[in-house]
């Protein structure tokens, strides 16, 4: 077959080029139709069987061949330039690809991987045979180009690759032209669906590679781009490069987006164009936007007489209505409040219930007169003739237990507490005959409660020490002689300031007070007696003169007086000083009855149905005694606040009346008339403690005549 040559002048590189045309039969169309794979640059030239003739006859032949439905292959011979070839490309006509309305498309966006390639990977089906060297447009720009002719609806379809779809504009790298022209770019989805078109303005005429941008008109990912020529014009495509356009509202940050919270709503910190709104800070992906509190971070600009009020994205400066307002407590049952800047009003919070107020206690912000009350007594067997009583945690369970001396049985009885004011069955431990008083303390520093018992034990006036095992049981007793003095009272304290517990005993027969200094290991030094005239019957310990050293107070039965031994701080004492009361003194108790910070003394006068109060002067001396009548048989005494009003009260056993009498304190050293609460038969000594954990002081008595213990649970309110 003869060949014809057609020379196209005015090409950008100045080369003389010759086209050769190979005609294929119509039946060859189907065999060549389908997906076209990429071809390497610089492949062999395989065109043959040329037409001959001038430019006009070539154009006529080509137009006729296309109308016959035949495919064509154009091979470009570049005169003095390199010769390249193109494998035949065929495919469906352009109108075989359907178009869709962009508004109907769902918003999609491919996720770029670490290997995402923005350049074309393959030449795709639909590329026409009038594109020469189509594979030269694959990959990154390298100076080699595919040639698109404007005649016969030339189209170059490029595949960007699966997972490498674009969502932004398309950059087209092209070789300089001799004549500026406008081409078209079609964008297609992965299934070949048409998305939209954009003009491609190729304006650069100089040598080298230039860039033109085709604006992407859609909002869904595109996989294929179809470059179409301009009529009777020729241009050379080196490469195409896609981009990922940020989609505001998809929750993925990119490009122009400063924030993206997954929506296109304004007013939530990230506005409809994905920029941060004033007064907000946005972080993360999707963006989480938080209001900036200008009032808290100090960036607000309010005047001194204004209050900063934070608002979403901003703040306001409001008048400070609290300027000069002092929110003082309304009364004793309220505390200082805070001012509301918006209203200028003060809050008036109530004081905690139980707060002292004008002779009463606060309840729900109201001052109420305290009501002293105890539940009916609950009795349990304690053993024969219970006498002395003490409370403490004997088995280390955090609950108070009780110990009694059984004066006729040579035993100590222990009842372990249940924590609710009830006690378990009594357990007894031998201590020798005639035990009177008992104290609970840790004498050897092992953390377990021990017992000190005083009395006429086994024909010896002594104190017995029972070291505790920590489980409610005790080791065998060790006796310490107190100089044949019949100890009628026992008090444990650190009399020499060495941090070790010592023992003082009031010795009825010998008219002395004995001091046994502790060694800290549960043993004691020999007793040292101190003269106390008048047969002391009980002993108490307190700092009477405010020198920081413990002093001793005794109730002197036959001496009808209160005795004082001022301590030297080393376990020794000054000479005794007595204050006459003119009556037989049974028991003494110490405490601050008038709230002046000085120790006062109360004494029970068993035979006279009285208790006497001696207010302390703070120097070891007292004011004149004041007597208060009580029922018959005043015995043991305790000073404590029993009704919760913050004032010291006085409670004591009434042996002959089978009761405990409570004289409420007025806070000035005077007492109200006694209120009696029934207990078991013949109470002589009592102990005070919180037996049920409600924070109130309860009472337990040893009922000498009844052989029981009585518990009075405090029900004051």
UniProtKB/TrEMBL annotation:
PROSITE patterns: EGF_CA. Pfam families: DUF4215, EGF_CA, FG-GAP_3. Transmembrane segments: none annotated. Residues 291-322 form the NOTCH1 EGF-like calcium-binding domain. Keywords: Disulfide bond, Repeat, Signal. One of its GO terms (molecular function) is calcium ion binding. This is DUF4215 domain-containing protein. It comes from Pyxidicoccus fallax.
